[in-house]
TrEMBL record, chains A, B:
This is Annexin. The lineage of its organism: Eukaryota, Viridiplantae, Streptophyta, Embryophyta, Tracheophyta. Ca(2+) 3 binds at residues 295, 298. Keywords: Annexin, Calcium, Calcium/phospholipid-binding, Metal-binding, Repeat. Ca(2+) 1 binds at residues 25, 27, 67. It comes from Prunus armeniaca (Apricot). One of its GO terms (cellular component) is plasma membrane. The keyword Magnesium does not apply. Belongs to the annexin family. One of its GO terms (biological process) is response to water deprivation. It holds the Pfam family Annexin.
Amino acid sequence: MATLIASENFSPTEDAEVLRRSVKGWGTDEKAVISILAHRNAAQRYEIRLAYEELYREDLIKRLESELSGDFEKAVYRWILDPTDRYAVLAHVAIKKPETDYNVIVEISSTLSPEELLAVRRAYQLRYKHSLEEDLAAHTTGDIRKLLVALVTTYRYDGGEINAKMAKSEADILHDAIKDKAFNHEEVIRILSTRSKTQLMATFNRYRDDHGISISKNLLDDGADDFQKALHVVIRCLNDPKKYFEKVLRQAIKRAGTDEDALTRVIVTRAERDLKDIKELYYKKNSVHLEHAVAKETSGDYKAFLVTLLGQED
Amino acid sequence: MATLIASENFSPTEDAEVLRRSVKGWGTDEKAVISILAHRNAAQRYEIRLAYEELYREDLIKRLESELSGDFEKAVYRWILDPTDRYAVLAHVAIKKPETDYNVIVEISSTLSPEELLAVRRAYQLRYKHSLEEDLAAHTTGDIRKLLVALVTTYRYDGGEINAKMAKSEADILHDAIKDKAFNHEEVIRILSTRSKTQLMATFNRYRDDHGISISKNLLDDGADDFQKALHVVIRCLNDPKKYFEKVLRQAIKRAGTDEDALTRVIVTRAERDLKDIKELYYKKNSVHLEHAVAKETSGDYKAFLVTLLGQED
């Protein structure tokens, strides 16, 4: 379930007019920006952009970027984009960091459906005139590169068939590879990047049943390197995205110096999807409401924007 | 230019009726099958299949498979399919051979446009309930696997921009890798599988200008192994598909014992695209008309079918 409370009496022209007033002249009325944008779904936001362009002959996104600043600006920018386009931007930002943020790449490639991932690859090309895998491969090396490129380029079969024999044999391949620490990377990458999600669930279950420990626990045994950590994220994203996102939020909040990028990313990407479920998981795990934790760690317009997206009524 | 001479006065119902008469009862009227199917384009063949199904409640393709045999059956089957579906079948056949026929995989992944390749991956899943890369990775190993999987999963940028500096630096990377024979496979695969075709043309040109030899010649210097041979095919398919297909035909015909699979594959996949240009290239290189060479090496209905697709009037 989503947390977004979208407006029901919606007029793109009126919204565009309010936004125009709130950015025009000296100063910006951030409250007005939040009260509109944090209550509009993706289709509505798109209509507002069109209406604004039509009325004022300027790009609303560019105007907001020049009027807002800091984490609030980043959050509004990510939020206002179409979800597919937003993932393309998030992937690009992750790739272009001095050290590619491979968690974000794993997250995008492993939590989206095969068709959604293809759409993101298309959006990435339109925006950056390169393919996603091209930029990714040029900015990474070694085993991590092999894993990430395989994950973003795959177009998994989306059907529900399970091959039980294959689940057993591939659970064994994964177990041997993890046990020996002499990772047979090629085979691990092949299995995790090409099998359907349904088949992988069967393989992970078989792993746990045959070997008495879950594969994700097994991967973090001791002294995990970057590649193992990345595999661990892959498996968590495939296995249970909501649980994975709850943990990303928890770590972003608990860190000394909040990780605003992660906080923003999870909230804007999930608010229209399943943030309500993630909030419930968060409460179960932390005995604190997510919106209270977020409010405690953030401030100003940024805080107001996030808690509104989290479903808090104004 | 295509060689196919498609019918202009076309009635799917009449065609379905003629085909029905030609397969009904004892024996088959192969001439009638050829005179219809070898003169219908993809859209027309699809309409005939629909009309046939509607009229006779059976699948025309299955019926033809049971009535025809040998190379003729294979050629008709491949031809009647929608081109996207046909590539999925060709890829599947190549993968399932005792030794995966990597040339066919390279050919499909490197001669199709990025969007066409995506469509083939979609068609493959619909047909086989697995992804193309999943089956391919499960049937290959080592460096060849890395190369082939990277080629089929890529979604290249399709724009015309050229980065001249990158063309120079990547031409050098390719040259060093080839010169040292200590192939830096990872980098070679990265460049060939992720860069846009336009960028790769610039890189290959730069290679030739800076190093005094074309990359494809350089790759076959001496003692090329399977991986080098596959790279060679990749580069030829990217560089000049028509020239590549001419050579496939030449080798299929010249071999002791014609290579019917290759002959059929090139003729059915190119007849509606550019087989006329390929025929002209063939004549230039061999001083023999392709349809005469094909007629000499084949016989019966198979021969009649191929030469009709090659544009010979009945």
